[in-house]
Task: structure prediction
Amino acid sequence: MRFIGRLIWLLITLTAVTVAMLFATSNTEMVTIKLWPFANVFTLSLWILVLGTLAVGALIGSGLVWMSLIAAKARNWRLTRQLSKAEMRASKAEKQLLDADTEDNSPDVNLAAIPKKLPAS
Result:
């Protein structure tokens, strides 16, 4: 199963790299970029601009996913600690209950010897 997953990942990666190479070789025109608050003007190839924007977006997206993963792991750690504390309390309560049952040395009561009706006085 792991082999199939790696094979699929390899095929997706090779396809993405091939598409990026075809895009880069097909779009060699120069593009001028002006950023509003700045006076500078940048002239880049179209493929550099598009693939660079794609890379920056991928980095930002992966950073957001990474942060949500850290939050999920922290929640998992907290819940694991709470569960272990609850299990310890439950085992302590069971032990106390067993100790209370063994300490109870009251004689066995024969319920058949107890009259069902109390005599009227």
In short: Helices lie at 2-26, 46-103. Strands lie at 30-34, 41-45. The mean pLDDT is 87. The chain is about 70% helix and 10% strand.
